[in-house]
Amino acid sequence: MKRRSLLKAGVAFAVPGVLSFGASAKPVSKAKAPKILVAYFSRPGMNYVSGDMVNLPVGNTEKFAKIIAKTLDAPLFRIEPVTPYPFDYRKTTAIAREERSAGKARDAKAIPDIRGYDVIFWGHPIWYGEMPYIVRGVLSKLDCAGKTIVPFVTHEGSGIGDTANLVRSFQKRAAVREGLGILGTRFARNEPVEPEITAWLKRLGYQK
Ligand SMILES: Cc1cc2nc3c(=O)[nH]c(=O)nc-3n(C[C@H](O)[C@H](O)[C@H](O)COP(=O)(O)O)c2cc1C
User: Fold this and answer.
1) Which helix (H) or strand (E) holds 55?
2) Which DSSP state fits 188?
3) How many angstroms separate the CA atoms of 155 and 126, rounded?
4) pLDDT per residue as tens digits for the range 135-182
5) What is the CATH number of domain 29-204?
6) Residues in CB range of 159: below 8 A, 6 or more apart
7) Where along the chain do its domains lie?
8) What is the pTM of this model?
9) Which residue of 140, 150, 164, 207 is surrounded by the most CB atoms within 10 Å?
10) 176 pairs with which residues across the strands?
11) What's the pLDDT tens digit per position in 37-63?
């Protein structure tokens, strides 16, 4: 019988590498790698580095975000204020204080498009012991239902504090993981922080 006649008769051919019709083998199910986005806010300019006022052209949290993005091969989204915060440290703290007592900050230029991402790394400096209000403004506009949020912060001594619960209060339908806070001075001095960050990512189960 010719091949065409065999097909008409419902006989399957096994082509190497392709499952033949009627085969009972199921495709091997592979755990889908989560799609990760690293979103952050960071302010370049004058800042305290272990008690000394120093110009930081690249903010500490930006350096932290870039290490995560590089380690996980993930894209970055930078939260940028419509009106930048001043270069001057004292002017910035005065504005941050005003925004804190008003419970509202200046707007951000854009919010990240998080559709298509499963995990959002959420980074910012600690301002007055907490998440800056500009960052809260952006977080409150996102729909993170069913997604995972991983907070990361830089600070000058306060630590990460209650950041995870604050994130949860804005995104009640998201899973919020263990965050990591690192002293900003360590980034400003270009100290080797990568091993700590890599160990934290590994602990959470995120690897390239
Ligand atoms: C307005 C303002 C408020 C701050 N408040 C705190 C604070 O309460 N606790 C703290 O540990 N660090 C505080 N810092 C220090 C920053 O958290 C720290 O320098 C951080 O690494 C800056 O990150 P960035 O360079 O990404 O903006 C404050 C800095 C600024 C500008």
Assistant:
1) strand 52-56
2) H
3) 5
4) 999 999 999 999 999 999 999 999 999 999 999 999 999 999 999 999
5) 3.40.50.360
6) 126, 181
7) 29-204
8) 0.87
9) 150
10) 149
11) 999 999 999 999 999 999 999 999 999
